[in-house]
Structure formats: C-alpha cells, structure tokens
Here is the input.
Amino acid sequence: MLGAMQDFELRVMHLLDHAAREHGQRDIVSYWADGSETRSNWAGVERDARRMAKGLTALGLKKGDRVATLAMNHGRHLVSWYGAIGAGGVIHTVNPRLFEDQLEYIMNHAEDRVLLYDAMFQPIIDKMKSRWTTIEHYICYDPPKGSDVQGFEDFLDQYDNDFAWVDGDEREPCMLCYTSGTTGNPKGVLYEHRSTMIHALAEIQPAVFDFSPASVALPVVPMFHAAAWGIPFASAAAGVKLVYSAVNDPAVLTMLMNREEVTHSAGVPTVWLALFQHMDATGEKPEHLNVVTIGGSAAPRAMCERIMKMGCRVNHAWGMTETSPIGTMGAPIQGWDALSLDEQLDIVTKQGKVPFGVELRVLDDDDNVQPRDGKSSGRLQIRGPWVVKRYFKAEEDAVTEDGWFDTGDVAVIHPDNVMQITDRAKDVIKSGGEWISSVELENAAVGMAEIAEAGAIGLPHPKWDERPLLVVVPAAGTSLSKDQVLEYLSDKVAKWWLPDDVAFVSELPHTATGKILKTALREQFKDHKLPTI
Amino acid sequence: MLGAMQDFELRVMHLLDHAAREHGQRDIVSYWADGSETRSNWAGVERDARRMAKGLTALGLKKGDRVATLAMNHGRHLVSWYGAIGAGGVIHTVNPRLFEDQLEYIMNHAEDRVLLYDAMFQPIIDKMKSRWTTIEHYICYDPPKGSDVQGFEDFLDQYDNDFAWVDGDEREPCMLCYTSGTTGNPKGVLYEHRSTMIHALAEIQPAVFDFSPASVALPVVPMFHAAAWGIPFASAAAGVKLVYSAVNDPAVLTMLMNREEVTHSAGVPTVWLALFQHMDATGEKPEHLNVVTIGGSAAPRAMCERIMKMGCRVNHAWGMTETSPIGTMGAPIQGWDALSLDEQLDIVTKQGKVPFGVELRVLDDDDNVQPRDGKSSGRLQIRGPWVVKRYFKAEEDAVTEDGWFDTGDVAVIHPDNVMQITDRAKDVIKSGGEWISSVELENAAVGMAEIAEAGAIGLPHPKWDERPLLVVVPAAGTSLSKDQVLEYLSDKVAKWWLPDDVAFVSELPHTATGKILKTALREQFKDHKLPTI
Here is the structure.
C-alpha cells in the first residue's frame, strides 16, 4: 500500500521557481573585477536562466551535457548554474587556480561542451584552448569593450524567456565538481538533483547556515569551490538576498557588507585573517554581520574568538567536495548564552555535529568502530544522501562494502557527538606507534603573534619512525628563533609532540584551494636532517 | 544518465535513529494527568520504540496496518508514533473530543487493529468497544493501580529492543489523520514517509519552527490534532528537547516552561488566552520562551501584540490536516528589528508565506487566478509534496485536474507574497454581490475588552442577499449593549460590514478542535429576524 500525497520530484529548478515567485524582489548584487556593479534579483535570475537555457538548447545542448564555468562570484555565474541545469545540463564549476595539466585533464574528462568565463581568465583560455578537446562554445561574462569574444549578455539578448525547464528523474545529475587532490588525477563528484535538494533543505536550518528571508549573505567562498558550499541552492530555498564580489579585497568586502546590510558570510580561514588586518588598519568593521561560517580548513581558536567578540556566531564547518559539502557544523547548544566565552570556544573550535541526513563513524587500523569518547582517533567515514557513492566515470564505487565513504581525515568524536578533525590521514605524524596531529601542531603554532603560517610534517627517525618538523613563516617585521617557538609551544601541546626542529621560510606551498600542500613541503624538506638523529 | 550519490530512502525511522545517536541525552519530559512526571530522552524513545515495534509484530501487525491512539501529549504517545511506524504500521491519532458517531465511523473506516489510550478516556472505550469492529488489542498508557487492562509499560516489558525497523519504499504510508469536517463523514489523510520527511526538513528552518539543538519545545497542540503539526518528526530531525503535558492547565504549563527552560511553544489561540489570564492572576510568566507558534485558527492582533511584548517572536501559521499541516508561516523579514511594533503586527497578523515546497494560488468564481495585490480575494488552492492527493480509500483524487487542492478557505495574497485568510468559503457573508469576511468581523469584535468570543454569520436579507449577525459572548462580569458593540466596531471595519444585529449568548458551539461551529450557529439563529428587514 502506498500513500496518496502529491507527486513532486526533488528537482533543483523548483528552488529557482520558488525564489522568483515568493522572494522575487530580493536583490542579487554583483561587484565586478573592474569595480563596477550590477544588480538583479531572484525574479531576474529566473528570467535570465530561462533565456540562457533556451540559448543552450539552441546551441544543441542535450540532457546530461556538461557546461563549464571558470569564474569568480557574481550574479551571471549564479544565472549560469540555474540556466545550465534548467536546460537539462550539468553545471561544472572549474577552479581557475588549478595547474594547467589539471585544467586539461578535468575539462577533457568532463567533456564540457560550453565554457563560460570571466575576462580575467582570458589568458588561461588562450593558453588552454588547443588542449581542450570537447569545448564548442566560449562565452565571456564581462568582455572588454571592443573585444570580439561572445559576451554573456549579448548571448542572452538573442533569446526570450519562453522556456520550460527540462524535467526528468530526481536522480539525474545537475552538477559536477572535481576534487583538487594532492596526488593522482582529480576525481569528479556528480551531484544529483535529489542529493542537492535534500542538502539544500538541510543547510538552511538554524544549526547549519540559519538562512531565512531575513538573511543577507555575502559568500566569500568561491563558486568554484566544493559546489560553493551549496549556498546558491540553499539561498533560493530560503529566500536569501545575495551579495557577490568578484574580488576578495577586504576593503570591498567590508564596504559591501555595510552598505547591503550583510548578516551572513562564509569563507575559508584566510579570508577572515585578511578582514582582521583591514579592520585593524582602518577601524572599519562589518556592522550587521551575525553568522560567520568558516570551513575549508580548521579555524584557529584565536580567529573564532575574535569573530565571536565582534558579536557574531561562528559556524565552524567540516565537509568536502564528496559530501556536497556539508558534513558537520558547529552550532549553539541549549543554554549557550550562559556559557563563558572559553566554554563556547571549546565547542566552536571543534568541527561540530552532523545535521540530519549524514552519519559519521571513526575506525581504527583494524576497522573497529571507535567509541565516541573524545580520545579514540582513527579514520573518519561518512554516509548519507548527499555523500558520493561513485566518482564520475569510475568503474568502481568509492565506498566500503557496507556503504561508507572514507574521508581521508583522522578524527575523534566526543561524548556530546561533536566531531573533531585531528589530521589528514596522510599527514599524521607517526611517532613511536602514536599519532601526532600535524593540524593541531600548526594551529598551536599560529597562535603565536610572530608566526604568520606554519606547516608540520613528519621526517624519518631511526628510533621513533617519524618525528615532527615545523616549518614556519614569520609574521612581517618580526624575528624569531627555534627556541622561542619551542618555548611558546611548550605548554600548548604534549611534550612528546614538540617538534624536533623548526625551519623558517618566507612562504609555504599551497593547493589551488589555499591549503598547505604537504606533498610539496615534504619534497622540499626531504633531505632535512633532524638534530635529534 | 543518473548521478552517483548514495542511496537513502526518505523513511521516517531515520529521524529517530538520528535523534537517538546525535541527541540521545536530550530529555523527553512527560507531565501526566495525575500530576506525576516521567522523564526519558531520545535514546530512550528509540529503545522503547524498538520494543514496541517488536511487540506489535508479535501481535501480528503487518506492513500498512493501522495502530490508533486516543491520548493526550506525553512521551509514551511519542514512543507509539515511532513504534507503530517502525513496525511497518501506520500511526492513526484519533481526537477524543469527536462525537460518538464520528469515533465509530473513523476507527472502523481506518480498520485500526490496535488502540492505545489514556486512562482518562476509559469511559469512551467502554462505550464504544462494541461499535468498533476491527480493534483486536487495547493498551492503556497509564492504567490505574489494580485495574486489569493491559498497561503500556507492562506490554513493553515483554520485549527487548533487538528489532530492525521495517524497511520499504519511501512512498509507503506512515500516518493517518482524519479531518473533523463540519459536514459529511470525516476524511482520512494518509501521509507518506517521503511527504513527512520533506515536511519535517522544511519545518525546522528559521522561517518556520526555527528548531535546533538549542531549542526546548513544549507543544500544547495536541498530538491528535493535524499530525501534531509535525513536531514529533521535526524535533527529532533537529535534536529538540521536548516537554509534554497531558493537561492544559496554564499553571502547569508555566511551571514546566520555566523549570525546563522552554524556548518554543505551539498551540491554538485559546491556549494563549488561558495563559494570559494565568499571567494576569499570578504575575508569573514564561521566562525563557522565545518563539510562539499560533495556528489552528487566526490569531487576533491583540494576542500577537501581547506575546511580542513578552519578547517572543510570533509564528502565525496556517495549514490543515490535508497539508501535513504547514501551509504558510509568518516570520521576520529583512530589517525586522527596525520596524515599529505596529508594522511588525501588520505582518504577523496575516498568515505568512509558504516555505519552499508548497505553492499557493487564489481563484475567483470563474477559476481565474487572482493577482497578488492584497485585494483580490477568492478560493485558496495549494499544491506540493506534503499536500493530499487522494483521501484514504477514496475513489477519486481530491485535487483539481491540474493538481491543486482546494482548501475551502477564502484568501488574498499580498504583493509581498504574504497570504491572508479572509474566511472559510462556506462562512463568507455575501452582501450585495460583495464578500464580508466573518473572520475579520470576529477578530475585530474580540479586540473589545468586554467581548470574550464572537461569531459572525450571514442571515438572509431581501435586498442584500445576506447581512451579518454578530453573536457575542460577553466577558465575565461585564454588561454590554448592541450599540456599544457597533460603536466599538465603527472604526475597525468598513461601514457596510457593520452587523445588522448583535445577539448575546453565554457560549458558542465549537468543533472538536475548538473552532466555532458555524453550521450549529446558523441552525440556532435560523429564525432570527434582522431589524433591518
């Protein structure tokens, strides 16, 4: 016996129809790379997405075909997500900071047929065009005056909005994102309409993004990073006003935040460091900001503290491209206001809890599920409706036999079910049979005012297997010694975690998404001799 | 081409698994009719639901079989929802205030096999037992000492919790609720796992119930009323602590709210009137209350104002059994805090906006879709994944050819997409070709301190077709004249809306859910002569 409620496919285009109908006048603001601004709203996004979908269909786009973007954050990029999906296609956001070999591999593997891009990435297009084998159409969002490239608005102007979204099964794909792995070829995650919709509904809840028609969001997280954390979908579901900036200049961000009365923002830790520097230099601050989501990598305690002292709630998120990306989110618990700032920080600096839908487990090396005791660390696995099962075009599933995805992270789960990442599995430093968390060492180190950034790696040691080397970038205008660093760390980490040596560099190697590139760092220091050997 | 995210059926039991795993220690408090209290938590509800499901299976319950309850709000009732559904059954909550003929019809029509009930309803059981043809097992939640009826806890004690939830398609039914219509036989709405899950995810968002692990909810809305507004499901999804009271004594509710630090409550307007009286008499007030949801019938402006002055947000909800039940919800918009109280009240006293998922339209008598201009009223229709398509055992769909459910309400939609119910279609007073809203007349009248309750009906009029009669219950200890009432109303409604006569009574007839029973009122006054004829 089945029930008899109404049929309703969980298709992404319902989101845009809803936003246009119920929140049509809420603004979508775009600050462009050249300092100009444009303004649309959800009704305008819907109108333009229909025109774009009609245009893509005229170009011959078929259901399931991929439409790539190489672009920063702006309203035309948002239109493209919905336009490509509304035409039955799959939006494929490409990270412009990837290396050329990766750009070649990813776009040929995806078989992208159309590429939409920002003028600032024209040099990449010119260099890569001959290596991309499937792209038939190039469309520039902001063509310079007098250039002969196809412009986005000119393209739209050829079509009216008399177009019905392509319909179909809710498990058809709508989006493709590649992981920027540090080893091997990038892997594509093919999100479904259904997975995207359940994820969007989960995201707007108070314990995750806390999105409502009262929210004004400025997502600093790039639209090419991990499905933009789902914000283009969640904000349509909740009727959020969006403020986009194609540049990440903290002066611009602060100006936009104050003028547009931004209540919600989201970005990786380095974004907030830059904002702090701007605040210190100018005395400006975001006046209306209320909820700050930090993800991509772990947020240091000092960063969380400063943002909370600004009167904001800190959402400390963990997730990955393979998880759409929300895995966990830190959020206030019952009696939050009665906790001291320190108690709140103890909670916020961990990675938070799963929203309904996803489930975590931690396994030791023998695949035993570890207790949630806050001490037993191991490999973190996740499952749920918005977690990858199989990578795009892969021959085999990416999950264990019993259906769990191994995140590659090392974590503990605390008795209150709050998860804490302790390391990437491949970055953990194995010393005398115990694990030293490179992440915790780094976080402790950057608490020192004289340290701008720090990376910890394990170097071979005859007695202990591995011992930690800390590689430090001193803050501008400071001088620093190994002894000063070790002295600072001495009451912050266990004694046997203290690095065997400290090396000083002017900069660390990074991945395309801003994380420390540990493979390059290990390569750089592979001949370094620890003084303890 | 399909995507390749993980499989995950939208089955209700995932909610309880989540709540038990991630929020297992959050309390479920029960205050019983005899003044005693019990305390469980989400882990306990999950354990007991498995024991119950095992027991029901031992009794021979098969997939899709109905399990009825005749009970107030308490933790054992909550266990029963999940226990019945976990066993593959359908939980059928029955309103104990229904008339005997309705109780007979509903339970025989539902073919309930098991009935769980509160001891206070034993007289109903004794009277109805011979008329119910399908019930095989009676289980009492709180059997009096020495009675020989099967007790709920004794029943559970026979079973351990080694039971796997019955699995299946997400469109299988999980719950059955009958509408307590004022005419004809009650009709059953058979909710699906899928519809219930999408509704639960929509409910926890900030613009609806605003549920999170920081919330403590005391739902005054009875668990037998319109799927308890979905709160037993939404609170599991969000990890809410629940406080239940089997009695609606405002002194008990206030005590529980303050002792358990209740942040969220929900109930029909009369609940809040009773609470106000208690506050006035004792000086007590709910100290932690933050979000108050009012639904079931329209909340008067004075009620909204008083609750907002208590520092609470007022969620003014509209919905019906056929819509799971959330249709619309009033919620703060951007810049809320900068609005004056009067401006906020102008918004809050309307019924709010649809959350993502459902869609509204208003049709005139010729089935033309009316503009969203705040003026053009007509029949309100709704569609979406948690709206009924066909009543239980019905031969035909309950929706229009193009898939909309006609709510029987008359409404306007404002330019900001906020919906306002103006009347029930069958209660609207048709005067000279124009419509007078009986609801607005009543709401205006109860704004007068000397009026406890008021009902407006149309009486036949030779010139105008119908003209309004206002039937008034004076407040205790007041005296009141027709002229005083008309004088009070004179600047509150249009002049041609002013009642042609005012009648005074000591009480009004009500439906089982506390609404004014207009059919009975019209019958009572069918021979009343308007002085204007």
Q: What stands out?
A: Chain B has 15 helices and 23 strands. The two ends of chain B are 72 Å apart (CA to CA). The longest strand of chain B covers residues 451-461. The first helix of chain B runs from residue 13 to 22.
